[in-house]
Amino acid sequence: MSPALPDGDVPPADGALPPSVVPRSAGRAFGVYLHVPFCAVRCGYCDFNTYTATELGGGASLAAYTGTALREIALADRVLRDAGLPPRAVSTVFVGGGTPTLLPVDDLVRLLDGVRGTWGLAPDAEVTTEANPDSVTPDGLHRLAAAGFTRVSFGMQSAVPHVLATLDRTHDPERVPDVVRWAREAGLRVSLDLIYGTPGESLADWRRSVEAALATGVDHVSAYALVVEAGTRMAVQVRRGELTLPDEDDQAAKYELADDLLTAAGLRWYEVSNWARTPADASRHNLGYWRGDDWWGVGPGAHSHVGGVRWWNVKHPRAYADRLEAGRSPAAGREVVDAATAELERVMLGVRIADGLPIGELAPTSRAAVAELVADGLVDPRAALGLDGTRRVVLTRRGRLLADAVVRTLAA
């Protein structure tokens, strides 16, 4: 069961945006997120808005989905124009899910062509698709690259069979080096996603997974702590005592091991859960989220943010398709972000990236708290004291493990 949508104001049926978005969008990059809500199998830990590919029909089916999403792209173009926003070429496109590569390659290309034909792509646009290791072929990856995709993010999660089994992941871990090689041969940048803290995963298991990812020669790794959300099958297993979650010390040890191994291999953290070999290997689309850029989220349950207005679509693919077929916006709710919320989010997201937050842009009480954070070993004293010439709040590794505490201190 995916989480409930947040509360918010009722959006207009046509999706119209208020005039305030024009000045608040000035200088912001524009990205597009395309949500493909289909998976071959639903993993027990997953609370994303996804459905098995065969359980839906009509305009919500896998076969009809691309045409439905293209309707929202056309609606988005009209809404942005009617709001008076100047045309902006798309700087990043991210196709996520779900398993986007369950769609035929031709449909993924149609989606990208829809974005390109509507807004244009910036000359250096980053175009990413997520994929499972068992959902791609060499030919398909070459065709995606030829169509303009530049990056693929594979859901590796683990290299250990019993860990994958607990996560309900069905791919063969021995296939991962092959798909990485195929993608790189096609000219795509490659990222591998890992999960740590699965019930029954030892520190040695986790080391094996990180080392297996690095052995592929990949230039980007994401490592996320498993969070068991209410309503998932794994949450039920934990509640029944069938699975035991690791404690915080175990999670911290695994994060530190990953950071040690990735750093030794030449990858550097640029966001709390993400490491890249060079700045060019970082996910520019995700950096856009963390830096507060604008983006339009296409698809059921997708979230958008334009000029300080945030909204989210209805969750069920059939309701989503029905609204678009009727010429209505699929938005279920929205909010205009006020100044206090915007500042809190700027701090909350800004401290997560290695660039950090300029101290001079913090409120006076927050600036005064930086010394306390340095003393507690949570903020790098070299950055905080300006020895690198910048005077920024940059987290130490201990600070990354306690990022929420840093945010609470700075936002107090």
TrEMBL record:
Residues 24-268 form the Radical SAM core domain. GO terms for cellular component: cytoplasm. Pfam families: Radical_SAM (PF04055). It is found in: Cytoplasm. PROSITE patterns: RADICAL_SAM. Keywords: 4Fe-4S, Chaperone, Cytoplasm, Heme, Iron, Iron-sulfur, Metal-binding, S-adenosyl-L-methionine. InterPro entries: Aldolase_TIM (IPR013785), Coproporphyrinogen-III_oxidase (IPR034505), Elp3/MiaA/NifB-like_rSAM (IPR006638), HemW-like (IPR004559), rSAM (IPR007197), rSAM_sf (IPR058240). The keyword Transport does not apply. One of its GO terms (biological process) is porphyrin-containing compound biosynthetic process. Coiled coil: none annotated. It comes from the Bacteria. Its main location: cytoplasm. GO terms for molecular function: 4 iron, 4 sulfur cluster binding; coproporphyrinogen oxidase activity; metal ion binding. Probably acts as a heme chaperone, transferring heme to an unknown acceptor. Binds one molecule of heme per monomer, possibly covalently. Binds 1 [4Fe-4S] cluster. The cluster is coordinated with 3 cysteines and an exchangeable S-adenosyl-L-methionine. Belongs to the anaerobic coproporphyrinogen-III oxidase family. HemW subfamily. This is Heme chaperone HemW. It comes from Cellulomonas shaoxiangyii.
